[in-house]
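Changelog note: in this version the structure field was regenerated for every chain. One regenerated record is shown below for reference.
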Amino acid sequence: MLEKKTGFPKESELVLCTVTNIQYNSVFAKLDEYKNLQGMIHISEISPGRIRNLRDFVKEGKVIVCKVLKVNEQRGHIDLSLRRVSESQRRLKQEGIKLAQKAEKIIEFAAKKLGTETKILAKDIQQKIVGEFQTIYDCFEDVVENDFDLKSLGLDKKTIDILEAEIRQKIKPASVKIEGTLTLNSYEPNGMDIVKEALILADKISDQVNIYYEGGGHFRLEVVAPEYKEAEKILQDTVEVAENFMEKNKGEFKFDRIETKKS
């Protein structure tokens, strides 16, 4: 982490921890996102059921996600739970950490090109996004997904140009997938060749088109593109060329949309 949090975590907060000490009926762990904080996990909060050996569940140096149960700021005591963190919560927390690290790398490269310290640039960005984005990564992602203008943060032009270049290089937009089923039939003597040619013409429309045979004259058509509008245009052109060819050659044509997905 670039900047560790100060103060204490809130109760029910999920925190990333590193196990530092394992005793007979408790485990101590460092709170990785906070400055100089350590928490304790009682044996009853490690896992449901009877535990014979804590080391079957945790080991020194292991990174775990815990839930904060109780905080006593005066004594500096933090009670944690490992068993109260669901698998989905654990994955979500770990994914958030990975995205934060990705944003950190972007800032690190930008800072190097700007001739400034990574922490200084990170702090400047963090202060400027308060109230608009929850995390720096959210801000960076918005630049890619929605063309968020970094000028609105009040950064200087040189910083904006270098930072945006790094963002766009390292964060790729989510792609839109449009799918449907093509049904092609021909009762002409060369019917198989007619269907085959219609599919070849459709596939040539774009490298972003994929066609898969599903049997019985049914073919799954898949279009993947960075933006929905682009995917729709490719789909329209693909369906149109196949339909026109089949009609021209006295064949049957049908297209059924499935659902739109972001991947």
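Spot check on this record: The first strand starts at residue 14 and ends at 22. Strands lie at 14-22, 26-31, 38-42, 63-72, 77-81, 176-185, 209-215, 218-225, 252-262.
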